Amino acid sequence: MRHAEGVAEIAQGALTARAVEPAHGESDPGHTHESACLNCATPLIGAHCHACGQAAHVHRTLSAFFHDLLHGVFHFEGKIWRTLPMVVWRPGELTRRYIAGQRASFVSPLALFLFSVFLMFAVIQETAGKPEFAAEAQSQAASGIVSGLAESEQELAKLTAERAQIVRSGGDTADVDDRISDAQSAIAIMRRIKAGRSDEKLPTIGITVLDNAIEKAGANPALTAYKLQSHAYKYSWAMIPISVPFLWLLFPFSYRFHLYDHAVFVTYSLSFMTLLAVFVMIAGALGAPGFAALFGIAPPLHMYRQLRGAYGVSRIGALLRTAALLLFSLIALVIFVAVIAAETVA
Q: Please, is 317 exposed, middle or buried when counting C-beta atoms within 10 Å of its C-beta (0-12, 13-18, 19+)?
């Protein structure tokens, strides 16, 4: 059942992306059997209606139906295979060419983003647990606290005995005193957590609704994590309007670049980051967790190359803007998570 749900998520994402992806003159010779368009009755000239864009011939067979399904899910009119290599290695050129009007050759940023998001959450469903993982995670966390508390108490007993021996020999106890203090602090925190309370306050951001959500999330982090996982894809589009103003700050009051340009940049960038997450999750599920290191290498490199290619800035300018963009991306992600937490936890 879980595998079927994953495939369904991928199919839904591809079909959703297909719905927003503009058609650009699909060639389908031989399907011009009607003299007028079946949709708008316009006289036909060629394989498609020049008024509404519908194909001249409408298939009415089951095999044609499944052909269209597979075409919509996996083909993207062939543009996906031109777009993916560029979004990975030449994102700046892709962004610049799309903004310049070369739309027929590439998958639109929004279509690619939608497909990437659905693909990511399909993979999450296959590699992560279901709602029951919340209770299991809490049980494992409690067990870990008990085990850690016992180990810390044993360590404290050893340190106390070591200190007593140093005192008897007339030595300096400064180092062991520091270690004892650290062990006592750790034990105190674990005891508070074990008792179901903690004096450690979660950070607040000054917005009452979001602060309340953060407090509730801290009370049950495992359940909150599951809710975020299961709801975030519904609001993933919000990352685009959240991120665009931050990108504008890199080129304030520029007459060369407009909000549309920044939106294309952001959407292709988010598509890459999402596909990167998919790749790392699949690699981890296949027993190759080392690829997680890509999260520290690929994003800044990709941002640098995209800034250089899309905006034509110098190397120094791209490096400085990449550093700022990494910070802005973290802020945007925190805002997004806080908004989702407020929606799902409040």
A: middle
Report which of 56, 63, 61 is spatially closest to residue 25, judged by C-alpha positions.
Answer: 56
d(CA 339, CA 122): 22
pTM > 0.70: no
DSSP string, 244-277: HHHHHTTSTT-SS--HHHHHHHHHHHHHHHHHHH
Q: How far is CA 30 from the centre of its chain?
A: 43
pLDDT tens, position by position, 5-33: 555 555 555 555 555 565 544 444 434 45
In this structure, the number of other CB atoms found within 10 A of the CB of residue 235 comes to 13
Give ∠ CA 291-285-12 in degrees, rounded to 5.
Answer: 105
List the structure tokens of 310: 């899309």
The DSSP result for 205-230, as a single string, is -S-HHHHHHHHHHHHSHHHHHHHHHH
Answer whether 75's CB lies under 8 Å from 68's CB.
no
